Write the structure tokens for this entry.
Amino acid sequence: MNSQDIIQDEARYLMQTYKRADIVLERGEGVWLYDADGKRYLDFMSGIAVAALGHSDPEVAAAVAEGARTLTHVSNLYYTAPQVELAKKLVTHSFADRVFFTNSGTEAIEGALKFARKRARVGHGEGKHEIVAFNNGFHGRTMGALSITSKGIYREPFTPLVPGVRFAPFNDLAAARALIGPATCAVVVEPVQGEGGINAATPEFLRGLRALCDEHDVTLIFDEIQCGLGRTGTLWAHEAAGVHPDIMTLAKPLANGLPIGAILVTEKVAATVGYGEHGSTFAGGPLVTRAASVVFDRVARPEFLAAVAKNGAYLRQRLQALAGGHVLAVRGSGLLVGVDLDIPAAGVIAAARARGLLVINAGEITLRIAPPLIVTREHIDAAADILGDCLSV
């Protein structure tokens, strides 16, 4: 089948819920992707901030092959060593005491909401059930995750959603204080908003939320599905604020493209959730956790994180040099960068793709740039040159 055949068959056989670019990707290597016609693309979106180690990483591939040869799936009715080993690494390198594995980020959010509700019920009874989330946040597409996602285009076709959710402006501590009270069971926030435009929470905002949650015995949930695990140049995006959540959700980069999510919790949360109260058939299987351990070991190295921070600063510097050619603002942390434009992002994305660079959007006028964490200055220079060409016309 050629590219056009595949595109036509997609239109015939798949539900039309994705607006795809008109290329068929066939293979990848490092920071490069290749389409079915042999054209090469510099990947500066990494599967929506997923391919932390790039494409076809030999160490990850070896772990997957070994997992497929030995044990792929047994369910969570039995112990497997790769699952326990990955959980130990996550706990050892974070605030958490325990881990629950999921298959995706949205499932991690669903579990986090359940755990927060259960903790509140155990400690306070049925009345403490409300959830506070923030404008422009994005947490997923399932009904619970959608209920704490503010944007109407995602929510409105599926209402009524889960009740008891209240939204405050992002980075507005006074507005959050007005909503958090005796009925609140959870506060959910992204330390860096991804879909919402690459907006970072201020340290003062996160510290203030921590204080409010402590005051009202509320579970504080940090959604680091997109911004966590090295993407900002630190292992966890919330490190800069000097505070810890009660629950943190992870997913996108954890297994470099294989489906996995994780809910990291304190013992205070874990102790309120008993046998049979949450579960998943596929989650935390030995193949995917074996691969995730390889990813975690690499990303957690101090020299790896230092390179992300250094390359992220260089990326922002190169993009800021484009100011004036339709660029209004550049912001971000590490290798998660947003570029506000005075023109629609869609045209720039298409023009960049035609020149061999893949980037995506975070809103109608914001480019989202999230290359693999292994990117080099040479790759950054090439991408910036292409974007400069696209923005000069």
